[in-house]
Design a protein that fits this description.
This protein is 7% helix and 39% strand. By secondary structure, it is mainly beta. The protein has two domains: 85 residues, Triple-stranded beta-helix; 88 residues, no CATH class. The strands form five sheets. The chain has a five-stranded mixed sheet with strand order 9-11-13-16-17. A four-stranded antiparallel sheet has the order 6-5-7-8, with no helix packed on it. Strands 10-12-14-15 form a four-stranded mixed sheet, with no helix packed on it. The model has no long low-confidence stretch (mean pLDDT 93).
Length: 222
């Protein structure tokens, strides 16, 4: 319960058919279990998860329980993630840029030894996630595992003295307000790996969007 007074149908010790009330409660709360670990089927290195419904580019989309196991890598830390279309995969490097983090699972030779739920579904709309990243002597790739936390920021600042024209490479599906706080007689360009980009002037802020192929400017530099 979130409060001392509840709107839920609680189970009383003396009632009959407790399982009916319990199942109704589970059913009502089931949207929150999307991509949750399905423990009844998990064994060894086989990982199963619950499906549900998620919004995919404005369309309510049904995600099914996985019928075939997601097989984890032995003796490693597995990063289990979903794409924005609801496709689940795992790797042993880190959460990919633009992915939805689900779990980190540590494995031994033949089983999962521990796992951590990384799902963070609720973020208040009025509370932006602010990040800062140094761009100086090389391009910065926000799709690389070390930088994916920055790719998820809604407000991103670039800092440092540029030694040449530099790129900030973003996921194909991305958007953020960016503030170019770089210095030096060079430019900072935000682009996708395979597409065109947008130069943000030093000391300026702008809203940028990756449309699946290229980074486009939503607002002028201000």
């Amino acid at each position: 319960m979130a409060s001392s007074t509840t709107h839920l149908d609680l189970i009383a010790q003396s009632q009959s058919s407790k399982e009916v009330t319990a199942n109704a409660l589970f059913d009502a709360g089931s949207p929150a279990t999307l991509f949750g670990r399905r423990g009844s089927l998990c064994s060894g290195l086989n990982w199963f998860y619950y499906g549900g419904v998620m919004m995919v580019d404005g369309v309510l989309t049904a995600i099914t329980n996985n019928a075939a196991a997601l097989v984890l890598t032995a003796s490693a830390t597995n990063y289990i993630e979903a794409t924005r279309a609801g496709v689940v995969s795992r790797n042993t490097v880190g959460f990919s840029g633009g992915s939805i983090p689900l779990y980190t699972a540590v494995t031994g030779a033949s089983s999962v030894t521990s796992y951590t739920d990384q799902r963070a579904w609720v973020a208040p709309a009025y509370l932006p996630s602010n990040g800062s990243i140094a761009v100086t002597t090389a391009d910065v790739d926000l799709t690389a595992p070390a930088n994916t936390d920055k790719a998820r920021c809604s407000y991103l600042t670039t800092t440092g003295a540029l030694t040449a024209n530099r790129n900030v490479i973003v996921p194909n599906s991305w958007q953020a307000v960016v503030y170019c706080n770089n210095s030096g007689a060079f430019t900072t360009t935000f682009k996708t790996a395979g597409g065109s980009g947008v130069v943000v002037a030093q000391g300026k802020r702008t809203l940028l969007l990756a449309d699946g192929s290229n980074v486009v400017r939503v607002t002028p530099d201000t």
